[in-house]
User: Fold these one by one.
Assistant:
Number 1:
Amino acid sequence: MKVQPHSAIMPPLLVKSLVVATLSWPSGANGSMSPYHRRPTDHLRHHRRQRWQEGRRGVPSFLRRVIVGGGEDTVAVAAGIRSSTNASSSMISDEPRIDNEHVAHYQAADANGHDDTNNDDYSDSAKMGDEASTAMPPTTIQYVIKKDGTAELFDEDKILRRLQNLSSDLDLRFLSLTDLARSICDGIYPNITTSEIDTLASETAASRSTTHPDYARLAAMICISANHRSTPNTFSEAMIILNRGDGGDGENGDDVATRGGGGFVSDDIADLVRRRGREIDERIRSERDMEMSYFGFKTLERSYLLRLNENTIVERPQYMWMRVALGIHCRKYRRDDSEGGRDDVENPIGDNSVSSKQISHEEDEDANLRAAFETYDLMSRGYFTHASPTLFHAGTTHPQLCSCFLVQMSDDSINGIYDTLKRCAVISKSAGGIGLCVNKIRARGTFIKGTRGVSNGLVPMLRVYDSTSHYVDQGGGKRPGAFAIYLEPWHADVFDVLNLRKNHGKEEQRARNLFYGLWVPDLFMRRVEEDGMWSLMCPHVCQGLAECHGEEFDRLYEGYESEGRYVRQVRARTLWAAILDAQIETGTPYLLYKDAANEKSNQKNLGTIQCSNLCTEIIQYTDKEEVAVCNLASICLSKFVVSEKGRYGSTAPGMAYFDHEGLHKVAKIITKNLDKVIDVNQYPIEGARKSNMRHRPIGIGVSGLADAFLRLGLPFASREAKELNEAIFETIYHAALEASNEIAQTKGSYATFDGSPASEGKLQFNLWGMNDGETPSRRRQHSKGGCLDGNTKLQQYPKEVEEFGYDWDKLRQSIITSGLRNSLLVAPMPTASTSQILGVNECFEPFASNLYVRRVKAGEFIIVNPHLIQDLTDLGIWNKNVRNQLMRDGGSVAKIDCIPDRLKDLYKTVWEIKMKDIIDMASDRGRFIDQSQSLNLFMAVPTASKLTAMHFYAWKKGLKTGIYYLRTRPAVNAIQYTVSKSMTDESNGDIQAQNILPNDIECLSCSA
């Protein structure tokens, strides 16, 4: 409703300030600051105080005295409005004007099935009735500023009604909506906007998520309903607005051809939407947005949903999923679709490359739409997600969809160094994460023939790259640029590089924006084990070491040693100690094992692989002409836990099983999607397009493995969990190979298939040393756990195991005959952001804690393990005492006496699981991972001896990635909660969580 101030009584300018003077600073029942103001971020508190002070300055002192003394009626009369005696329907009387356009809009929205609470005045007059059973106590009159700029008197009861409407599907036994509404009202300040009320309400609800997870669900619903209220009602309307880029006012006309694609969404998608918009709109399921977590939606809101400007988001989550699906399957693409333009040669890719006929968009539009709808349906239900760059850019005017780029130095020269720097800058601008091999750059002190001087070595050069990574962010400010520098430990500058991320030391000897990894040959590990000497060499003097591996590397390296061509020699353990020291202080360098990475690669026929990517899961061949690229997606494993009688035999009523058949189907769909991404992608540089078209690698990963184990009632390191871990990755690898083989039968193999291990029938598990005719495992179907007996879903029942297996020999023969479309297929990545979007734990990792605060670019969020809360609630033991002790114990349940032992075992955190078990599980699934995996290892209090034992165990287990980040705990517990002992009493007050999980980098590039 619009307020119409009476100009004869008071100038309109004073009306806004007038209301400011009526506000008392929010306080709790005892006059102290309300709980809300103690917990959420300080910037809101500061903003409210600032608005309050500014408002007081805008009202004359005599008027402040009159208003404060006169009470509610004085304010109403001064504003030219008579007080209403019917406060339940409106706090504004005298027949105020109603915006009929808004009423019609929301009536139409209700008819279309939208949430009837999504109106701009934050109320639902059509559904008040008995839902507002508990009225809020009256407070001082304040105004709320609506989206159209008009003011409306604030009604506290509307807050409560809105919460009640949104929480109809939640467990109200554990929610105090009246108390929550009161806390929200305590945070209201003068002239607050309706969008600010949404933010206030959601943050207040989220701050209570440690009480019960449904508070976080309610917070998500508040945010999402606000998003729905402020965005177009249909997908097609949103895409047209984003294509025009004009806010939908049509000033530039409806003909996108006249705009030249000047908006955000591509002309291809806009044209498709204009022709078939009704059909596409009918597929959108907006109600699925309400299933998102608060943290997941806030992550989408911050970086993923398209907007016209900083303050105007146009997309809903469901619109984003559909845009991505259409961008993959319905985009028209051309052979020269890269920022670098066409190749200078007629056929740069090779005889087996995709023909121009195949590259052109000749596929049937109906078939493309069917594939897009299938992709949309699975993504919108949370079964999988494409990588962050794909979510950012699919369907837009700049569809750079690739995640990972692996770069080699063009040359050991000024031209080569700066040409490579430009490559990295252009890739970073397009939201790509970079792995850079610097093995060929000469060491410090080496003679330079051209200038008759000596080289300054790697450090000054890396500082230039460090500055570039900081300056050129990814995707226009979505996150800082990120470069990982790879070096072999024989390089004479290795000690200097190990110090570059350390916090102490000379600034000119530091480059802290970069990340560092060592590409470690087996010879070095043997020398450390034997306590032998290690020779440090300059690549300019000892050439060819980076281009060979295995026995060939050993012969060349030892030959240089015997000739005395090294710069200096040190004990191998001295260098090893420096590596461990850097890891303890900084969490890096990454350790990847060069010989395992090469010997177990399906690209070993191309040459020696010399580096990995930013997140250590991509292992591909590069050279000075080719920039390796990979496109990623991840599967949400918890979605395949089914709690009813399933495909693979009978189970007890209500028991859960893992749906391998469904996983196999989804993995095949993802493989075909990612293969299509290779063709529709706009490459930032020509070398990347050339490499990707020749070798066509993809990377399928996972998220929510820990969630799947919990839903099945399997402790993370149990025998059954280890078997399922291996079984899952066998299913994914088999499905990906099968799909790639099927595509090859119609479109041909990738160009460099001949000579690859797969062309000879050697699959990944064969390269790990298994006999050719041996199937890796007879698939064991798990049906343990998950019985709903009325008390707890974790009642254990005898396990039924039904043996089944994949016909690997049949698939192997088909691959030999028909080939593969893709050289590489499986690469479990970190999923730092996308796992949060899906509301599950990261990748294949155990839970780091059962309760903590997570800091990412979107802000700080309290995370509670919802599985634990539900199980404790079912047992009737979830209360404030348990919550406080959980917080005081750093998220561990081990010392909480009332929790049963089986739950203590089930909810062990990663700090309570042996790293030997984590490494064993990495090795087990590694037999079905043809690239590598982003393997973090955890040690609360690391020592050199414990780290050495851990690293050597990983190396001897055959891992390609020995470690991504080393996660440690600081001197005080990693979860530092200011919970006093007295707070374990039921009567005591609030808890302030101070823990921030270690999070060296929120990798959006590899997050899939």
Note: The mean pLDDT is 79.
Number 2:
Amino acid sequence: MVKVFCALVSNDKFQSLSVTVNATDPTVDDLKEAILTKKRNALGHLDADNLILLRVCKKVDKSGGLSDHDLKSWPECFTLDAYGNEPETAMEANLTMFAGVQGASLVKGDLLSKVVHNSPGDVVMVSSFSVPQVMHPKNDLSAYFDETAPPKKGFNHVVILLPAEIELGPSHRNDMDIDPPVFHSTYAESYLKNTLETLASFIRLKRNGRNERNVFSAKDSLQDIQCASPLNVPAHSTSATQMDSTIEGAAEPAFLTNQRKSILKLEMKQSHGTSSLFTSDQIYQDEKDVGINMPVDKLLDVKEQTIILLGTSGCGKTRTCYDFARHQFCLYFDCTADADVNAMIDKIQDNRPDIKSPQNQQKFEVFSRKALKCLIASRMLLLRMWRQENEASFEWFCVQRSRRTGLVLAMVFQKLIEYPLEVVDMVYYQFLEELSDCWVIFDESQYFLSILQSDYRSSHPDNHGISENKLEHPRSFFSFATGFIIRQNLKSIWCGTQMRIQNIDVICSAAGLKPEKCFTFSKFNFLTPSDIFKLCLKWLQADAFNSNETLLDEISMFLQGRPRFFMMFLHKLHKLQDISQAYSVYRTEMTTNEASRQSSEQLEKSSPYCFWQSRISWEVAPFEGSNSLDAKKKYRVAHILLELCVSFLFGDGLTMKLDKDLDMLATNLVMLVDQEGGWGINMPEPLILIAGINFLVDQDQYALINFLSSDYFSPLVSAAQRGQKLELIIAVRFLQGWWLTSEMREFLPKWVNDLNIPKPRGFLDCRKGDEKGNHFIQQLRNPGYPFLLMPSENAGPDLRYSVFSCCVKTTSTAKSKSTMHVSSRACRDNTKFIYPQNWYTRQQDVNAKIKEELQSPCRFVHIRFEIPGTAPNFVFEPDATRDDHVICVTLESEFAEKFFGEVFVTKYKEFVSSVIREASAN
């Protein structure tokens, strides 16, 4: 345990605090953390890595501390202007001891303070000046405070605490002919007011001598903001005029509005030029009313000050940020679109050094921090003005999202960054203290990963080397920005599609932080068919809902999953004002590559078909340092995603375990589930799966079958598992529309070919969720039912689509194992369920409805898959009273080879032969 007396000098004021470090083996970092924790409000803006901590001790007793009497007797030693530059060792005349030069010191009476070594991220304090040391912040504090001879009772270890970046000597800047404001507090306050007034003039505009206009309805006088008398500081009229002209020509975004005849009855209110589904109070309340648990309710319970929203594209990260802003004042930055963010990036890129050297790199990183401060201060200036009149956090949020406000903020930023760093710091830190309850949100923050990818030094001071004009251990602007924001003690939320599964470790290590300081949030909604159907009931006009209830039930099944799918459908529905047409167009855009699909940049970013197309060839490597996987091994996205498809179709229908060291989230093809023991992947998204299958079908009709059968013949696969996989393969061929090819039409009667049956739009797995046969009945009732159906257990058929009814038999009885054929008795027991009158016989009410539907003229194509083979003496005979068509498929049939492909059938025959040989040998 170490007790330290700290003297904090800020804005020409002296503050003191006594800090106790309770760690068993305390380090310099532990001391910094103890100081920041003890004086959180006053020191929250300081960057711990760049603090200067100066050890102060008596010249006659260098290993001890200062007494309480000394602290009272020498208060001037803790004010900035008390320090001279009388060195013990030679140094340049224009440098002070605070410039970090070894040997810089102060001799004041019988007190001595001295900097032995100082550089950003590397602070040294020593108790003996005879042996200067260069210590790392992780080293034991005993290097600085001699614990073997602790101060006597009434004495204190003493350090002076200062921000390393503040320039404490006279300024020689051409654009500022005053000393830094920290020396002259009266002048500084006046200069700060002038600066804020100038910046505020960009927000308050005069048009042709008429009344002043603001971008929002709030008091626009800075005297109301500062509770001070008005300041007669001329505004920059030229810039204001240019901006006003720009704003007048900027069109506000058009979106859903409350139209009289609209098929939607959503009340969309425009707020300050901003309107969207995300800002609708009605949508927010309706979703809660139908029982949807809002992610924001869980997010508001998080206690950490740094939150990472982790989820795939469309899962609701941005929506959750919008909802969060209903409860908290937020500075919301869209990193890909906001004008002030783009202006900041341009400024930073313009100041990137062509020649990398320690000095140039230091200047560049100081400027980058200044740019980030200007970005935040610009928003805080606007927020400060807003809160003088209005305490509505969500209306403030909408103000930020206005295009007009965005232009204003960009110009305020561009003006503020022209000021010297000292002035920017005054503005920034004053706002930081006043608006400490405000959150900073960086949405689409993955953009910061793609710019300035290797222009910043490592957070570790030992890795600052430069060779061949390149940083030896570079990090991205994303890492630099996260480190800065978090160390400023700002409450922040980071979200973006490319945030990684192991993000909590990646961000913290890159920013030099401890992982426990961050909270990873991944509890986003998966909209169920029931959720979507209930919302349609609320949001559609009653006549439109009632006349399309069956279609809406189908749409609800198809759009289940991430919320964006449903919201994009609402966009399409608002535009087309026709449910059937909107569904057809949206389905085509999302799951196919048909020529009728209108390509656009937005479509490329949202279409699952495009996701598959661009990501199917990706290789995913485990995270560096992974303990559970071979870090050098790469995994094909195609393989993993197809296995996930199989898991959904013939697993539990909910989730599949996925090693958290694999960065699958970046593919945008899976939803994340935080499970005990690791991450799981939510996969029952028909839109994603159908898009993937359609993409693979477009490449090669047998490619997916050959992939799915890769381990089909393994001795480790049970007979039941083999049967499930065969059902999947058959389902894939139906989704491909096998009956539409010329070679397969030969096996079908003319009445079937004349129907020109289209490919199914998707499939519905009703094996565990349709016990009452609702979808089965709908399919019988509606000849154009668009989904391939997997009925519930004991229904009869294993697959149903249009006129096709399929039964699959692959397991063999005990008596027929040696021949790999199904026995005649087993065939007879199973074939009775082929007859339509025997469907759902275990549920008489459903069976009665089926028989009622069968009274209308209808014919079926019954396909009986007897794989590996039918009993030689058994022949299936259809019901003589019906005009149905029957196809019995074995490995020897021509239908099998053209249906499954020659490769699959050949492998299956070889597998059967090997089993028979082994059985004969035994």
Note: The first strand starts at residue 2 and ends at 10.
